[in-house]
Design goal:
121 residues; 3 helices; three-stranded parallel beta sheet; alpha/beta; 3 strands; 32% helix
Length: 121
């Protein structure tokens, strides 16, 4: 699909909208939105009871920039009744410390993996 047909447009000027994704050496990212999202996540997590049953589903987070993997692993480790489901085509390993609470789904694309999980529920 050509870019002309496959992008979000700015609601104010109609030009191609820039995704709010932080890239290396990117000085134009809007950190206010990222910071606000981080604050919402922290507030949500602080409101969880210690014995909450969480399923942390991580999709496509690789090892080159492990920030998302670290967050998912740390969250699963913090809550004793949680499970980490890591979906990654070729980097699906989960930490042995999670034992049976770490589920690796590899060799599948995200949509296929999520569709198969959905069919099992």
């Amino acid at each position: 699909v050509e870019f002309k047909m496959n992008h979000v447009k700015c609601r104010f000027c109609g030009r191609a909208a820039r995704p709010n994704v932080l890239m290396f050496g990117d000085w134009q990212v809007n950190c206010a939105r990222i910071d606000a999202g981080q604050e919402r996540l922290m507030a949500w997590e602080q409101g969880l009871p210690p014995d909450v049953r969480l399923v942390v589903v991580e999709v496509g987070a690789g090892t080159a920039v492990p920030s998302i993997r670290n967050l998912a692993e740390r969250t699963a480790a913090e809550y004793a009744k949680s499970v980490l489901v890591r979906i990654n085509l070729d980097q699906s390993e989960v930490p042995p410390s999670l034992g049976p609470r770490g589920i690796a789904v590899g060799g599948l694309g995200a949509l296929d993996a999520l569709s198969q999980i959905d069919a099992l529920i």
